[in-house]
């Protein structure tokens, strides 16, 4: 078979996956490597002292070779030449920035009459990242309030459940040449009469641009056919099929033999991402209840299990971002038409179903899939870092005690949603991303914080160290 003859991308690539690069929020974006390289080059001319070359350790070589789209310079096959930064222009720009900041420190209050004279066609600030970029234009434009929000203050710290706006708002910094080139490459692939899914997976592994993520996820999950002409009819048929299930089965939630399932779903839905306003809207919670109930009664071998509710959120956010250009986390879904909401709901259901088809044994009786995956994680860590493995054994820390949730929720309780969406770009580009490749991601996190783990000497401290370490890094 063709599938057997072709190796998985992560196996045949020299860049073994597993190293998670730092994720920068909108408040503190990474430095532009073009400017950094030129700066270092200029400094090296002045500083003629030779630097002693230090051979990188195998772990650092591994990390450097596995940089992905969270790192700005991941595509080695794309070579762009940039002009050297002019020192006079740099000094002038720096002086201008200092002058602007000094003006912002002491800013006169606007009078109501002055506000009335402002132009009415001002641009709405859709996220705090855009607010930071538009700070210098506040004298000429007043921001319109978002739903349930009178202002958008800057947030110095990104919480564990980070703002979706960092990943899914249109108010992002202008795209670089490299990002535009990658986006054009995706659009060219997706516009072909028959999309090359192998090439699409290869391009998606380092991350999918926001503009094409919805259609890319539909294709990679197997929900949409590769043939362009069949996509529209397939979407129409599958969406009608889903709402046929709603008409046929949803009323049965009031029947006695389905009461326990529906009651548990009804309890879990408000707990889904409680810090994000989008998921606390009654209409969104109704959508989630229908999706989870229909899936549960169509899969009686497992039924609904706590944790499945989290798996709907990335799909819902991605498909919502196809219709919403503003801040998704505060967006009021009642502003969308009924047809759009139905499309988002049906697509989220089918893509979540495709995901769960590959890991359903995680949720059947006694959850044997999770048991096997935790055991596989233990064996993997014992081979790649025997010291960490022996540390767990010494203090009687069972892998099942901390890794059960990692497998049950696919790390969604540990990672900000924006990171989960990015991670799922890679998961969906792998044939067994949500089952097999997920183990390597979990192992990579353990190795990432190995020093902090080894410093602790009891289970509670190890657990607390892992949790706080993740929060500080993400």
From TrEMBL:
Transmembrane segments: none
Domain of life of the source: Eukaryota
One MF annotation (Gene Ontology) recorded for this entry: 14-3-3 protein binding
Alphabetical keyword list: GTPase activation, Phosphoprotein
Keyword Zinc-finger annotated: no
Keyword tRNA-binding appears in the UniProt entry: no
Cited SUPFAM superfamilies: Ypt/Rab-GAP domain of gyp1p (SSF47923)
Residues annotated as domain Rab-GAP TBC: 207-431
UniProt-listed PANTHER family: TBC1 DOMAIN FAMILY MEMBER 22B (PTHR22957:SF462), TBC1 DOMAIN FAMILY MEMBER GTPASE-ACTIVATING PROTEIN (PTHR22957)
Job description of the protein: May act as a GTPase-activating protein for Rab family protein(s).
Listed name of the protein: TBC1 domain family member 22B
Primary gene name: TBC1D22B
């Amino acid at each position: 078979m063709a599938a057997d003859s072709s190796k998985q991308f992560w196996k045949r690539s020299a860049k073994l996956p597993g190293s998670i690069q730092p994720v920068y929020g909108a408040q503190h974006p990474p430095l532009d490597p073009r400017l950094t390289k030129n700066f270092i080059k200029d400094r090296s001319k002045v500083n003629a002292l030779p630097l002693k070359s230090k051979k990188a350790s195998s772990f650092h070589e591994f990390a450097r070779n596995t940089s992905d789209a969270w790192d700005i310079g991941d595509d080695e096959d794309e070579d762009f030449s940039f002009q050297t930064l002019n020192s006079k222009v740099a000094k002038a720009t720096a002086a201008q920035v200092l002058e602007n900041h000094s003006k912002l420190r002491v800013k006169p209050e606007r009078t109501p009459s002055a506000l009335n004279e402002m132009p009415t066609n001002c641009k709405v600030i859709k996220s705090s990242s855009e607010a930071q970029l538009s700070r210098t234009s506040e004298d000429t434009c007043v921001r319109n309030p978002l739903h349930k929000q009178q202002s958008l203050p800057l947030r110095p710290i990104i919480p564990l459940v980070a703002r979706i706006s960092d990943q899914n708002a249109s108010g992002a910094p202008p795209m670089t040449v490299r990002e535009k080139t990658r986006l054009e490459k995706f659009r060219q692939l997706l516009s072909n009469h028959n999309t090359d899914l192998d090439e699409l997976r290869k391009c998606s592994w380092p991350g999918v641009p926001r503009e094409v993520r919805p259609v890319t996820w539909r294709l990679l999950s197997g929900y949409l056919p590769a043939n362009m002409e069949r996509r529209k009819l397939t979407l129409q048929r599958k969406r009608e099929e889903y709402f046929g299930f709603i008409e046929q089965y949803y009323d049965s939630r009031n029947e006695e033999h389905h009461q326990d399932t529906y009651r548990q779903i009804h309890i879990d839905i408000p707990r889904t991402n409680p810090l994000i306003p989008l998921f606390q809207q009654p209409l969104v919670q109704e959508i989630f209840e229908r999706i989870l109930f229909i899936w549960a009664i169509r899969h009686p071998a497992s039924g609904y299990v706590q944790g499945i509710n989290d798996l709907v959120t990335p799909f819902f956010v991605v498909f919502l971002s196809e219709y919403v250009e503003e801040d998704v986390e505060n967006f009021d879904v009642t502003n969308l038409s009924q047809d759009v909401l139905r499309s988002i709901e049906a697509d989220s259901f089918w893509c979540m179903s495709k995901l769960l088809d590959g890991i359903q044994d995680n949720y059947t009786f006694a959850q044997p899939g999770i048991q096997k995956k935790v055991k596989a994680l233990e064996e993997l860590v014992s081979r790649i870092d025997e010291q960490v493995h022996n540390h767990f054994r010494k203090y009687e820390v069972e892998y099942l005690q901390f890794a059960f949730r990692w497998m049950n929720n696919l790390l969604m309780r540990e990672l900000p949603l924006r990171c989960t969406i990015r991670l799922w770009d890679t998961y969906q580009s792998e044939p067994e991303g949500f089952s097999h490749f997920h183990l390597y991601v979990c192992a990579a996190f353990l190795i990432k914080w190995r020093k902090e783990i080894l410093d602790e000497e009891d289970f509670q401290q190890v657990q607390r160290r892992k949790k706080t370490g993740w929060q500080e890094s993400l």
